[in-house]
């Protein structure tokens, strides 16, 4: 299935410019008709690792490395992210100014939905504060056709588009000097079909006179209205916080790497919540919520669902551990996390323990995160093979990851929490 594009524009420098469970904890799930009691693992050799061993550093030579500390003046991912939004139209594609094509209606199309999504997904750690100038549509100085969205978009043309928008804003009586935001949102009229997709500019945003406006910018397009709805704002703002694209940028199937897990892949996937690894990098998960395995042996853990800050039931006593990370080498880890139908994942078509690999030396759109399919050949659900990739007690409960020497087994379940055993050869 061909999907509308959602892209970022690379800088000429090759960089997209425009985070205490120190060891494993054995937990016994409470007995119930639908719960298998966790076996006693005291006889097993357990390797307790400091969580820092699993916090792989970013490789700043690759685009939006999935490691910790990527250096690109990222927008804040905790506290308040300050955004400024204004609205534009064109001489060849004018706004109607009525119905759902007014500045107020377009603001409401994106906000508060996107802000509420972040508040929920971040457990309240991130507040998206959008100031919107809804006084008018500001006329762009060039036609929509002149920007050549249909031919793709270079870093230079994208920067020109943003600076033209700021010129139009000033010509219409706005003051760019008064913006000073973390992220600038430029929203076109619904009539602007030629502005077809919604890229993120990762460079510093400034006027042609050199006045600083924002750290990053997102220029929305028709794909927001036609396909992605407000979630495109969450996807693109994810880039401003230095998260990579998890879908392939070379035109292969959108769900190739992660299916519908994490909206940095397929925006409209059934389980859009950010993966635990991304939440850890963003500062939404504390180190105490991550278990680290570094070396051979067997360890037991209990995972509570990544979608919510805490879990109900006896299995929640493990300090709400959200992820178990198995270090493979200096640039690669395997992650296990529990996924549910809670919060922003209420439409999930499968639940259970999700496994995926992270490689910090793989760039955005090249597969830096790849979901491990514990049910290969199943046909998946919600139109993607990987959407039912999870381990469960009712289906596949154990899986050995090819080439990694790691076996993960679900040994118990208590509500949406799962007890697992990790065996490393």
TrEMBL record:
<feature type="signal peptide">
    <location>
        <begin position="1"/>
        <end position="31"/>
    </location>
</feature>
<keyword id="KW-0732">Signal</keyword>
<feature type="region of interest" description="Disordered">
    <location>
        <begin position="32"/>
        <end position="51"/>
    </location>
</feature>
<dbReference type="GO" id="GO:0008233">
    <property type="term" value="F:peptidase activity"/>
</dbReference>
<dbReference type="GO" id="GO:0006508">
    <property type="term" value="P:proteolysis"/>
</dbReference>
<protein>
    <submittedName>
        <fullName>Uncharacterized protein</fullName>
    </submittedName>
</protein>
<dbReference type="InterPro" id="IPR008757">
    <property type="entry name" value="Peptidase_M6-like_domain"/>
</dbReference>
